[in-house]
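Hi support team,

I'm opening this ticket because the web form for multi-chain structure prediction keeps timing out on my end. I have pasted the exact lines I submitted so you can reproduce it. The total is 516 residues across two entries, so I didn't expect it to be a heavy job. Is there a limit I'm missing, or should I split the entries? Thanks in advance, R.K.
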Amino acid sequence: MTDFVTPQEMAERIPSGCKLGLAPDDYAAAPGLVRMLIDRGIRDLHVVCAPIGGMQVDMLIGAGAVATLETSAVSLGEAGGAPCFSRAVRDGSIRLRDATCPAVFAGLTASEKGVPFMPIRGIIGSDVLKKRDDWKVTSNPFDDAEKIVVVSAIRPDIALFHAPEADRFGNVRLGRRRETMLLAHASKQAFVTVERISETSLLEDEKMAAGVLPAIYVGAVAELKNGAWPTGLYAEYPRDGQEVEKYARAARSPEGFQAYIRDSRSAA
Amino acid sequence: MSEACTSRELMIYTISRLLRGVRHVAVGQSSPMPAAGAMLLRALNERDGLERVQVSILGSVKHNSFTGGAEELFDCAAQGRLDAFFLGGGQIDGQGNVNLVGTGDYPNNPVRWPGSFGSAYLYFLVPRVILFREEHSLRSLVERVDFVSAPGVSDETVYRRGGPHALLTNAALFSFDREAGRFRLESTHPGYGWRDIRGTTGFAYDNEQCEISTPLPDEATLALMRSRIREELRECYPQFAGNMPGPG
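Hello R.K., no limit was hit. The queue was backed up. Here is the completed structure from your submission:
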């Protein structure tokens, strides 16, 4: 059963210390809800970026909420590097698990299929591999001459993302953003903020149904208009480039970051 | 006479030349010039009645036909359905290794870049990977990268059908010899001579005393960049497109 909650209630249901799966900026990121997590002082998160992070991840790091970060990259896109992330790397204040995008998808796919690992091409000879004790090189069981990488399954406790629409039954429309679908399938449950809630079932229209995440994966839905702001929401609205720039400038210093969080309005 | 070809326009045109003959080219995030080069090839092929080029721009709604999410790009690459891709890198070395992670020792790199993205995978699987790094300097083109996000070459026990094809900077164009694991200077851009390139490149390469100048686009190609390509770029790269010269 999907619970319909307020954004504040959703934020309270995400515990410190959990493994939190997040979508990329401008696809299905949920910075509106992330701001509420920061406001309530969440700590010790293991953040899984599926497969990369942006402003919402940088804000969580700046707020001291992240213990472990599993990601293929963190960037603010046209606004440049992620300042809190770079600082935390230098300080050693987060535990880093650098990845490469398709390896994150492979780990999530393993979890989706309920198997312990997934083989994947490439990666051999990369220093990324050397730093990951949960990735191994093995031989192809059907051809001993071939080496191949296997990555262990990634199973977030909660997948948190923002989507255009849910219905009263807890089904969520994602459209083409299948990587968000994968993240939801791989996680124990999905918490979703949405632009709007429809009274009719999203599964009724056969043309739309294949792009809908069924309620069986969805733990909670909260209506939060502009919940992706200031990043964009795929095919709904573009990022607010000026606001992301403003953040990028402010977050260059820890004091500037604190002032931004204190002074800027959140989407709520 | 229109405004002279800018350095960026020359790089965009050069990218389109490097892509000639591909059927499907994909462009990653934060890559306006590779996106423009791919769009230019598509437009030129359309104009000249040549083969249709599939361009997949990650992050675009209009210029991306994937319906399987971001995984689909990687699945396409693994199956051989993708002919060309671009990688950048804070550091690129003479063996074609790329570093997108940072300088100094991992994990507490004094200078940290975003991360490896899909490089550690796509470099093995996409036949024509174009290394694109605007800055041509001793700190970007190094003898040995501090961190290998993706290796330039592999031994025969590793499945590999992809790898570096060329290296393009704001000063020169190199090709890559996969057998030798070495770059070769192919041409220098207007305003740069081979001595400039030698002095600002941190690794050894072949054909050091290259006297060939990188070809410039003709008027019609330049006009296409300043109209159609500029408009197509606007969706994903509004700031970059806004800074490009406009028509007329």
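A quick check on our side: The radius of gyration of chain A is 18 Å. Let us know if the file doesn't open in your viewer.
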